[in-house]
Specification:
Helix content is 52%, strand content 17%. By secondary structure, the chain is α+β, with helices and mostly antiparallel strands. Residues 75-82 and 385-389 have low confidence and may be disordered.
Length: 435
């Protein structure tokens, strides 16, 4: 029996039992749709989380803390971790690691500072970094340059939005352009006599960063030496972190593919390190497990549908016993009979799979429309702008419909194996006498 004859015979048999095939295929439709919707839901959550993480942190950066950092959380530390200090020698060792293109200490201002721009005031996070490392960190600039001289600053893209009029205690309608502006930093600490002591520092903005959605948007970057000078003023004593160690450091890696290897090397030296790339990997593993669980739940419905296909094919054998005997009598082999029943079972699985994929994709679109509209409205009420609110709950990967179709076809074939074997085991003479 050639392929054309096989296909013609299978189509004729399926048309002859339209109602039964339709009822059986509905079970496959429901199971396939359940797999598509549940896996797409997990994929949508994974996509949303990973996109948010990518906007928060640079996937080629690693944040490093001294080994003693773990002790602040009560964790026991070994001797090597106590010696893992981010001093000049430790930073030099990190720069020698393969794939590392830049290492810079990251020191935050120890006290509060008020910003003053003309008649406006506000606040921001003040951070000191190595000016030589700034060009290699890959920060996107909206204006200005990445040169960071003494008492010069690179400001985040949304620092200006935090400025307000101190007289009216209200935000300004149009934030000022900070590029090239002279900003005053007003610092306050308690003196030895218990009275507040102020210090005013004038800095000039050399560059403004583009908005990224992360902490960079609200940060003012100064040269490391300037922040150490301000921290020494706060402490009332000269600090020497090059000898005693910095609080944290940023390691820039050439490629995100090398981040995990570099991070393992840093951890092996006794430091505590984390990166958005490692967090992303852990999240991907977690969501793969979630997709597997969700897909398994949907596959239960397909398992139930498999019994329906097997039952349909068994009933077909009883109804077509004489037909099977006639096929064998005119020369059909057991292989031909088995192919007929397996193809019929696979066809039911494929038809149900196609319907399930269409139903699953449609349900996903409905869920996105309803849930996305609701969540977008909630985000707008929280102060988000309409241009930034694009919420997708369900995301169907390209591979999922293909997998669902192949899986439903396999379910059909497996369900038809036993009925096909029963059909081939029939004796032609007995089958012809069957009433």
């Amino acid at each position: 029996m050639n392929a054309r004859d096989l296909l013609r015979l299978v189509l004729a048999n399926l048309r002859r039992m339209k109602a039964r095939v339709a009822m059986t295929a509905i079970g496959v439709v429901i199971g396939t749709a359940a797999v598509v919707v549940l896996v797409s839901l997990a994929a949508g959550l994974q996509r949303s989380v990973t996109q948010d993480l990518g906007s928060i942190g640079d996937l080629t950066q690693i944040t490093v803390f001294p080994g003693a950092f773990l002790r602040s959380f009560g964790a026991p530390t070994s001797g090597s971790e106590r010696e893992a200090t981010l001093n000049d020698r430790g930073l030099a060792d990190l720069r020698k690691l393969p794939g590392v293109v830049a290492v810079t200490p990251r020191e935050s201002l120890m006290g509060g500072a008020m910003l003053r721009v003309n008649r406006l005031t506000g606040g921001a996070q003040i951070t000191g970094i190595d000016p030589a490392a700034l060009p290699t960190l890959g920060y996107p600039f909206a204006s200005g340059t990445d040169r960071l001289g003494q008492w010069q600053a690179v400001v985040g893209g949304r620092v200006a939005e935090g400025l307000y009029d101190p007289q009216g205690r209200r935000a300004v309608d149009s934030p000022p352009e900070l590029q090239g502006q002279a900003i005053q930093l007003i610092l306050t600490r308690m003196g030895d006599d218990g009275r507040p002591v102020e210090r005013t520092v004038r800095i000039r903005v050399s560059g403004v960063l583009e908005q990224t959605g992360g902490e960079q948007d609200y940060t003012i970057y100064l040269a490391l030496a300037d922040v150490l000078d301000l921290n020494s003023w706060y402490q009332g004593a000269r600090l020497n972190p090059g000898r005693d160690g910095y609080n944290q450091a940023i390691v820039k890696v050439a490629s995100s593919d090398q981040v995990l290897d570099v991070e393992r090397e840093i951890l092996s030296k006794g430091y505590f390190a984390y990166s958005p790339r490692s967090t992303l990997q852990q999240l991907n593993i977690f969501f793969l497990v979630v997709q597997g669980i969700f897909g398994g739940i949907g596959a239960i419905a397909l398992l139930v549908a498999a019994f329906g296909i097997a039952n349909t094919m068994m009933m077909s054998i009883y109804e077509r016993t004489r037909e099977i005997g006639l096929m064998k009598a005119v020369g059909a082999t057991n292989r031909d009979v088995m192919l007929v029943f397996l193809t019929e079972a696979a066809s039911i699985g494929v038809l149900g799979g196609i319907g399930g994929i269409l139903l699953g994709v449609g349900l996903g679109a409905v869920i996105n429309l309803i849930a996305g509209t609701y969540l977008a409205a909630q985000a707008l009420q929280s102060g988000a702008t309409a241009s930034n609110v694009v919420i997708t709950i369900v995301h169907t990967p390209v591979w999922l419909p293909i997998f669902a179709l192949v899986f439903s076809a396999v379910v059909g074939v497996v369900s038809g194996i036993y009925p096909a074997v029963r059909a081939t085991s029939l004796n032609p003479i007995t089958a012809l006498r069957y009433e």
